[in-house]
Sequence to fold (632 residues):
Amino acid sequence: MSEKYDVGLGNHNVTLRKNANSDFVSFWDNQAKNLHWFSPWNQTLDWNPPFAKWFVGGKINACYNALDVHQETKSDKPAILWEGENGDSKTIAYSDLFIEVQKFANVLKSLGVIKGDRVTIYLPMVPELIVSMLACARIGAIHTVIFSGFSATSIKDRIDDSKSEIVITADGGYRRGKIIKLKEVVDDAIKDLDFVRHVVVLERTKNPISISSKDKFWNNLMDDASDSCDAERLDSDHPLYILYTSGTTGKPKGVLHGTGGYLTHLYSTFKWAFDIKDSDVFFCTADIGWVTGHSYVVYAPLLHGATQIMYEGAPDFPDNSRMWEILEKYGATIFYTTPTALRMFMKFGDDIPNSFNLSSIRLLGSVGEPINPEVWKWYFKIIGKEKCPIIDTWWQTETGGMMISPLPGLETIPLKPGSGTFPIPGVDISVVDEYGSEIPNNTKGYLVIRKPWPGMLLGLWKNDEKYKSVYWSKYLDCYYPGDYALKDDDGYLWLLGRADDVLKIAGHRLGTAELESCIVSDEHVSESAVCGISDDIKGESIIAFVVLKDGIVIDESLLEKNIFNKIRIDIGPIATPKKIYFVKKLPKTRSGKIMRRLLKSIANGENIGDTSTLDDESAVTEIQKIVNSALN
Ligand code: WT7
Fold:
């Protein structure tokens, strides 16, 4: 942990941190002034724990801040350099995007969408996805984007929970040269949802689709739409979007984000973390279906009038050099990706990136899961050529934007491979024990956030009780993110993975509970427990322990296949386990709770530690035997 890397951009803004530490409310008040407001706020923060309202009384519009503000100075500047998986490409200037968004905002209006309505978006990584989101924001509709890898059942649950009457999708999307039939998935998802009035269909792949009376084609609607639509003047806490994310219990929850606070958080972190300049070509590889895409593909770069690369497909298609080819082609200066992608690139070998000219790159970022120090060093040396700072950014769907990260745009500090370094200014983070007391340095504890921050979720969609219990009940008036962390002697923070039953598979967030309820819905299964097992590329992959109902005799490999299939249909391919172990009993506490942590230790070949609360030792012995024989 003592290894340090001194690379920086030479920025030393000491005052900013000082101001943030002395008064976080007036600090954020000043940051919010970087945005365009139709009318100013009269109260910076209304903190009624656990509900925070930022910039109360202020009127703002996210789309206006992303587009209108740049029309005088940057209308010809490329906003999006889009690269399709199949070799298509397109450059979209700020003025083009402005026109498309206004037209689509009028389309939404013509379909009867009004302020506060929810609009579900299930599109591949094409510019129309950004157009759809901004058009919603322009008229005050709440977008709810669903990652295009989720299945019909997942979509149905989300549309039903948000009661979206409008769904925007495409005939298909390209992924590894194949067509994913998105429209077919939507047809299946909405077949019993009568409240869905319209489905807007973008033709991306031109694969045949079935058409119902609800379906309207994107192009036809756009042909008839006027290209002028004023941005609504919205309250600062007007909901901008719902994004569903997995937790420890039940179905995914609808994380609800607002406007003024969220945008303030994004504007500031984008500037501090990426030191963004007008000449930069930014490339974030995240899919817009996840929060990284919402915050650092859609909103933050556009707020800054930046140029960015948007890539539609798989990073290893048609071959393992695709990413570096794109970076070279567009002269990317900033590259922001995940440890899972980096582990994959590293495995492909150094010769591939070394054969490209990556000299334009000046800053690197990592997001979504812990980065292994050896991967960090590879990224630093092979991609950054030992001259680019790496920012390891810790945050969550709920935090809206970065919370812990090196900030080369603000200050130059020595970097330590695998550490997120320090909280961003204006954010108060500690590492505490089970009871909420600060713990000594170098001790693993729980991360907590002590004060509200502007990007903080407004709550969970129509579920205040859950919002309170999930995030605010473990510690009094402190936000509990569910991560382990430690602070070293230099005050650097190290994020040590989830402390709860949330899995991080290839950086994607999945809950053990949703997987388990899917598995036990099989008629042969009585109980199931799911946990993560470490994986060289994906960080973690899923394994499941399954107990059959009494008296069931069945071909286990066939049942395993059926369960895999069910998971693909109910959740999506990303949730498919690596292996299912059929066992007689699950290890439980005397009060009947499954000891998943114990299963995880066994599966990962680790010491199982304290088993004093275990009800029946024989469950563990059996599982150890089965797992060991499978591993050997
Ligand atoms: C969880 C949030 C960050 C936005 C995309 C993921 C883990 C995230 C890091 C990091 C270690 C990280 C945490 C967090 N995580 N970034 N730099 N180092 N862990 O958002 O899907 O809501 O997941 O991802 O466990 O709680 P998300």
